[in-house]
Amino acid sequence: MGRRYQLIDADTHVNEPPDLWATRVPAKFRDRAPRMERFPEGDAWVLEGVTDPINFGLNASAGMPPEQMKGWVRFEDIRRGGYDPAERLKEMDQDLIDAAVLYPTPRLSHAVIATPDPEFHLAQIQAYNDWLSEYCSHDVDRLGAIMMLPNRGVKMAIAELERVASLPGTKGIMVGCWPHGDLEWEDSDDEVWRKLIETKMALHIHVSMTNEMPSAHKTKIVGDVRWYDAPKRILQLVWSGVFDRLPELEVVVAEVDAGWVPYFKEQIDDRYYRLGRGAGLKLERPPSAYIEEHFNFTYIVDGYGVRHRHEIGVNRMLWSTDYPHVPSDWPHSWRRLEADFSGVPRSEREMMTVGNAQRLYRFGK
After folding, report:
1. Phi and psi at residue 8, in whole multiples of 5°?
2. CATH number for position 274
3. What is the per-residue pLDDT across 120-162, written as a single tens digit (0 to 9) for each?
């Protein structure tokens, strides 16, 4: 008998091991590859084109009391599940989670995404995707890979999409920049989306898109509001008419929560009716219809969104922990679940905590 899934985490992360790129990129790139170095404050990634060392402590702080969470740590001191899949499964068991999909570490992945040299850019992405597939291969019924898609040309993107689609554990594709090479929309990327539809996988945008190198955190509260960029990317897709051309395209916007979505739908419909015809914009349906039928939103803490789930779409909300990052309630995620879903019918709760994720990721199938 197959596993019965009762709780699927729709947005978690890995902690990339120090030698990931050094041992996997071609020899000619090894001196340029991302590497971890030791500093007096702790360990950090040193990245080509990035002035600041990029620390990772807040990306490995699950289970810690708030006063112990800090940016600078030693790699050997972090929880092993971020880079060891056997340990990850034990940690998931502690949190009563049956399956999870995995994204890369922000800032570190941003440097890979923004690498201007096409050949070096691709080498880094392929090294990461291969490592993530091997990680998920430990148990593909429980671990799912959201692979990075290269963004230095449509042909390159399609080739890597075709390659990773057959790798063990692949569940979706993440774009950090549009495939043709920047953050402006071009219909030429439709060729990539057609191929993605053929693979029966969704397009994923995690928090925000970028084509710039990262830097050290400048704000006191890191990631204070995560949905700034999401409306812009949603509207690029909607205004492009891509959903009229490719009605099977599915999009996941991860870690942006969902409480803001009803207001956004109302406002963008209003602007479309007032200005769209004069601007020569012709869609087959109002913008809100595309949002309701093509976009999925993962959330961590969004009690407001859960209370207004019918205005968002119960079938479009996916629960997540962000493990092993700061927002995670590991190993007591059930406490947050019970609080958020108080008074929510069991059928709707199960849709947001397992059903919607299983529709997208088909664990065990």
Report:
1. -120, 130
2. 3.20.20.140
3. 999 999 999 999 999 999 999 999 999 999 999 999 999 999 9
